[in-house]
Design goal:
heterotetramer, A: 150 residues, alpha+beta, four-stranded mixed sheet, 3 helices, 29% helix, elongated, B: 81 residues, 5 strands, 30% helix
């Protein structure tokens, strides 16, 4: 089951949903907002998605994970809108009969999500600047709020 | 024909709007649309050169044919997670 | 921080304890009691530990994980006594700046725990038999409760 | 000297108690203790042959010397997790 949401992710509910009588392992991955990255301070991250396509791609990832590993339960939830430091922007919960598969499926899901699902984050730095994060691209997307154009 | 292109993230910010309307010859491809967009919106040059295209909510390759009903989106490098 | 406990594991509290301003990733692993293993039904697992040694070994594993990976927070909790199906017998929560390290540290911790920490489980099968689990050993440890000695 | 050996899991069940008291010559090793235990408690033969030994809460090798204060445990194959 996949979901995009503007609300904080209820990790306890996700874990409960991943429990299964045939499961020997549950792996939960949380991507959490770093407050400090290389000494620079983040106030929050803002997430935006191409919603229709992101939902389709996430569902495809779940299908592919179930094809590759004996997945019993699978939950993928991604936050949209503003996410504060230490809060989870993404949560993936997977249960399998044995643990190696749960780790492999969980890691593959988050790696694949970060590679191809049309979701973007914007850094809100403590110095008042904001910056869309586009890996591999120059920082033309950066705009300065406080101290004048740059 | 007139096609619409959804914009996101830095592309939306640089264009100042969340959708472009672009006139194209009918039967144009994704590659031709890209050239037209860059010519008409030079401020999108860098982001377009790093972006992928989606048609009807799936990634599309350069020679996919477009029509007026195509649901087109410019997909800058993603950063979810 | 490591802990042996007779109480159900509070996974939400573990996740909260693993959050950290510099963490970009939290991985939580739960080992859950399988109700069905190859078609055989488990009523519960009973866990026993050589407590003094197990605590020392778990603390050593945490130290070693912190030496190998940039671990920000680490929690290892193992249940003792009776654990019902779908409940967690072990929980490991690890946070790191980047996700690959959280997966690697979490997987290494549970693999190492299962290899060397002096904790044992006894299967309570639905047919009334019980069986200490000693990997690699014949089943001399098995005792039959219902239908007379075996 | 008299040494005490903690038992767990199947070993405890097979012996019917959670600790053995074994008379050994002083300065005996872990290997010598193992032989004595198997001779005196033949029902522990299989589990001892698969088990490790711990002295003072650390895994011990065969030629570790024991004394009366040694905190000895028989560690059958573990199955935590």
């Amino acid at each position: 089951m996949i979901r995009l949401t503007n609300d904080p992710i209820d990790t306890a509910a996700l874990i409960d949903a991943a429990r299964h009588p045939e499961a020997g392992a549950v792996v939960l991955f949380l991507g959490t907002t770093r407050e400090l990255t290389d000494g620079r301070q983040t106030v929050a991250l803002d997430y935006e998605a191409y919603r229709e396509m992101a939902e389709r791609q996430l569902a495809d990832l779940e299908t592919e994970a179930r094809r590759r590993w004996p997945v019993l339960e699978c939950r993928i939830v991604h936050r949209l809108g503003r996410v504060a430091p230490t809060e989870a922007s993404v949560a993936i919960a997977v249960s399998t009969p044995h643990r190696a598969d749960a780790f492999a499926a969980g890691q593959w899901l988050i790696d694949s999500l970060k590679q191809g699902v049309p979701i973007w984050k914007r850094e809100q730095w403590a110095d008042g600047t904001t910056e869309w994060v586009h890996p591999g691209m120059d920082k033309e997307g950066e705009t300065r709020r406080g101290g004048g154009g740059g | 024909m007139r096609v619409r292109v959804k914009l996101f993230a830095a592309a939306k910010e640089l264009a100042g709007c969340d959708e472009l309307a672009v006139e194209m010859p009918s039967g144009a491809t994704v590659a031709e649309l890209r050239e037209t967009v860059v010519a008409q919106y030079p401020q999108l040059n860098t982001v377009v050169s790093h972006a992928l295209w989606a048609v009807d909510a799936e990634y599309a390759n350069d020679n996919m044919l477009l029509n007026e009903l195509s649901n087109i989106a410019l997909i800058p490098p993603v950063s979810g997670g």
